[in-house]
Amino acid sequence: MTELETARQIINSVDKQMAELFEQRMDAAKKVAEYKRLHGIQVTDAAREAEVIKRNSELIKNEDYKSYYINFLQHNMDVSKNYQHRLLEGMRIAFSGVEGAFANIAANKVFPDAVAVPYPDFKTAYNSVVDGECDCVILPIENSYNGDVGQVMDLAFFGPLYINGVYDIGVVQNLLVVKGTTMDQVKQVISHPQALGQCASYIKKHGFETIEAVNTAVAAKQVAEMGRHDIAAIASDEAAEKYGLKKLEAHINESNNNTTRFAVFSRSAKTPSKDDNHFIMLFTVTNEAGSLGKAISIIGENGFNLKALKSRPTKELIWSYYFFAEGEGNINGDNGKKMMEELKNKCSEIKVIGSFEKEIAL
Fold first, then answer.
1. Measured between alpha carbons, how far is 36 from 113 in angstroms, rounded to an integer?
2. Residues 6+ apart with CB under 8 A from 42
3. Which residues is 361 bridged to in the sheet?
4. pLDDT, tens digit, for every residue of 287-298?
5. Neighbours of 227 (CB within 10 A)
């Protein structure tokens, strides 16, 4: 047997083993896709890919082969992601509003293969997942300029769903009008209260009257349907295109860093991981002096950084509040378990609704 024939025989043998291993890898990818569907997690995880490439490429001893092996790994992961995308086609993602809403934009960015399903309001969208109509729901929890979305925080406190990811989406608001409208004709603007707040200085400068809508895209749709020149919508580029409106002025929100944080809610909590470094917790404190201060101290004493603490009325008792807390650290580790045990002595209710590795900017 010649050297060439020997080399080809080795390649054939290795290819046979690789074919068997490839099937095992794709079977595992299928399980990963099923897990991501159940827990509302997007397919692409750039940090995980970089970690895998770094770790596995170090197994290659011949430096001449390393760059080729990195390409091989990346191709394998791309094939796996393509398969997962195909498996997740038909996944149903609820959002509040109509096509062109920022939540619709967020849903398409986080789950590009899924079917985005519109609902008229936050509660109906949330309950569509509770009732099993949709796999998960994407809802805004905070805007960098205009603050918290209280209705969604209330749903998180009173409802059964879990947050398995938080995504930051840049928001650009535009003044949208029916074609042929000039600035001097506009007297009123219609949009969601959050959008009106984000553009408050612009609205005041032009002396516009404001009308509230349940959603920015709903506002755009209403302006298109009315066909009037005296009323404009504040909404996205996508809403302008969807409803055939003209963008009279672009980027009218006050802050150039206007970002909305969207949370993905699903029926099942993600499996705890040693890489989880963010958590969202809801609690009420006992009715005794210093309870809240002691609860906050417990969180810090166990090595966790409290990034945000927000209060909302429970609506059950007058002047009774619950607290929406976001923290840094792995709440699933020993320190987290100790902290939760200590908090139970100071809190009348407590539940962790989210634990994940990091917040993702899209």
1. 13
2. 36, 110, 111, 165, 360
3. 168
4. 778 889 999 999
5. 11
For tokens 């949370």, the residue is 263
Provide the whole-model pTM. 0.77
Q: Which residue from 301, 361, 284 is spatially nearest to 336, judged by alpha carbons?
A: 301
Report how far apart, in Å, the C-alpha atoms of 344 and of each of 18, 278, 295 are.
52, 20, 9
- What tens digit of pLDDT does each residue of 87-99 get? 887 789 999 988 8
Q: What is the dihedral of CA 338, 340, 345, 347, to 10 degrees?
A: 160
CA–CA separation, 310 and 353 (whole Å): 15
Contact predicate 148/261, CB 8 Å: no
Give me the DSSP letters along 74-107. Answer: HHHHHHHHHHHHHHTTT-EEEEESSTTSHHHHHH
Q: Tell me the helices (H) and strands (E) count for the chain, helix number first.
A: 12, 16
Q: Are 248 and 122 in contact (CB under 8 A)?
A: no
259-288 burial, b at 16+ Cβ within 10 Å, e below that, comes to ebbbbbbbbeebeeeeebbbbbbbbbbeee
Among candidate residues 222, 205, 310, the one with its CA nearest the CA of residue 261: 310
Burial group, residue 60, by CB count within 10 angstroms (0-12, 13-18, 19+) = middle
How much is the pLDDT for 185? 96
Q: What is the end-to-end Cα distance of the chain in Å, rounded? A: 57
Q: What are phi and psi of 121, to 5 degrees?
A: -155, 170
Q: Which of helix, strand or coil describes residue 266? A: strand
- Closest by alpha carbon to 231, among 180, 193, 176, 192? 176
DSSP 225: H
Answer yes or no: are the C-beta atoms of 73 and 56 closer than 8 Å: yes
Alpha carbons 96 and 94: distance in angstroms, whole number: 7
Q: Single out the residue of 329, 350, 194, 168 nearest to residue 259, CA to CA.
A: 168
Residues in the chain: 362
Give the residue from 265, 270, 322, 260 showing the smallest Cα distance to 291. 322
Give the residue among 282, 289, 339 at the shortest CA–CA distance from 311.
282
